[in-house]
Amino acid sequence: MIDLGISKMALIGAVALIVIGPEKLPRVARTVGTLLGKAQRYVNDVKAEVNRSMELDELRKMKDTVESAARDVESSIHTSTREFEESWRETTDAALESSVEPAAPVYRHPGKNWRLKRGATPQWYKARSGVRTKALSGAARVARYRPRKFN
Predict the structure, then answer these.
(1) Residue 84 to residue 78: CA distance in whole angstroms
(2) What is the band of 11 on the pLDDT scale with cuts at 50, 70, 90?
(3) Is the Cβ–Cβ distance between 76 and 68 less than 8 Å?
(4) Is 15 helix (H, G, I), strand (E, B) or coil?
(5) CB of 74 within 8 A of CB of 68?
(6) Which residues 6+ apart lie within 8 Å of 29 measured at CB?
(7) In degrees, to the nearest 5, what angle opens at C-alpha 135 toward C-alphas 132 and 141?
């Protein structure tokens, strides 16, 4: 902003002391300080607004380049899909003209019967691994899992 050295500040202070007088100097200095603070804030706000507008311009330019790239990609995709559809149509038309339709497959029963159990697990394996083979009533379950008494 304004480049003031210590000697210039001392000279300005001495002149202000002589012109204004010692009793009004603190109030004038306070007023000058608040005005300088307001001016600095205003300058900072203007700088921030300029920076924001520059960033917005850059973002708009970037947005335009991205949109144009997206349009180019979209048009290339459309052209390639059109070319693929045309080539697919040509190949399928040629294949349909030259090929004979295959016969439909004949149904064959799988030969499964869900009522018959195919695997048989031995009883000794079921007993060892704790697989339940019979349903237990409530009383039998209580009797089975009742804690043992020690005599």
Answers:
(1) 10
(2) confident
(3) no
(4) helix
(5) no
(6) 16
(7) 90
CA distance 2 to 29: 17
- Helix spans in the chain (H): 6-20, 25-98, 123-129, 138-144
**Angstrom distance (rounded) from CA 6 to CA 146:** 99
pLDDT at 41: 95
How far is Cα 133 from Cα 127, in angstroms, rounded to an integer?
9
User: What are the structure tokens assigned to 122, written together?
Assistant: 């031995």
Comparing 99 with 133, which gets the higher pLDDT?
133
Does the structure show a pLDDT above 60 at 5?
yes
CA 13 and chain centroid, separation: 60
3-state secondary structure 38-64: HHHHHHHHHHHHHHHHHHHHHHHHHHH
Average pLDDT over residues 127-148: 87
